[in-house]
Amino acid sequence: MKYIKPSEWVLAGKTPNRYITYLDHETLYLGEPSLCLYSLKEKIIGHGTTFIILDGSAYSNKRIQLSGTLKTEMVEKYAGLWIRSENETSDLFGFDNNYPNLVFGTTSWKEYHITLDIPHNCQTLGFGVELNGSGKVWLNDVKLEIVDNTIPLTYYQIENF
Question: Origin, by domain of life (predicted)?
Fold first, then answer.
């Protein structure tokens, strides 16, 4: 199991200049500060994400599960975890954005999971939390682990990889 430090995350998205991400020492989960992503304006077209990229070779030919605990405040469109795997030419192998369990509105802390199979030639693994539209989302207790095949997939498998 790999625990991800908040300092390793970066801000991106379709409109990243409309969002800020930081380590929030006031909004705690199990006594730990939370990674926060929030919009700078009340009405926004676009999305922001905070994410991390890892070497995917350690996860090749494995089933992995990303889990994280989210809390939201006034999320206009949706927020949720996402994960993607790519090969050496950045071709997309798999993607999941927590659909249909995307979060909106104001919610208390809740754990979410994404499970997918990683192909044999995975080079990079990217994952994070997305905020579409305005609002605020906190992320904590992020874990990435290799699981066995009894854990069901949560995404559509891309064929022929």
Answer: Bacteria
State pTM to two decimals. 0.86
Q: Answer for the pair 30, 111: CB distance below 8 angstroms, yes or no.
A: no
Other beta carbons within 10 Å of 129? 27
Taking the C-alpha atoms of residue 90 and residue 125, their distance in angstroms, rounded to an integer, is: 10
Task: Tell me the domain boundaries of the chain.
Answer: 2-147
Q: Are 119 and 93 in contact (CB under 8 A)?
A: yes
pLDDT tens profile 98-121: 777 789 999 999 999 999 888 888
Asked if 5 and 142 count as a contact pair (C-beta separation under 8 A), the reply is no
- Give the residue among 90, 8, 107 at the shortest CA–CA distance from 56: 90
CATH architecture of the domain covering 2-147? Sandwich (2.60)
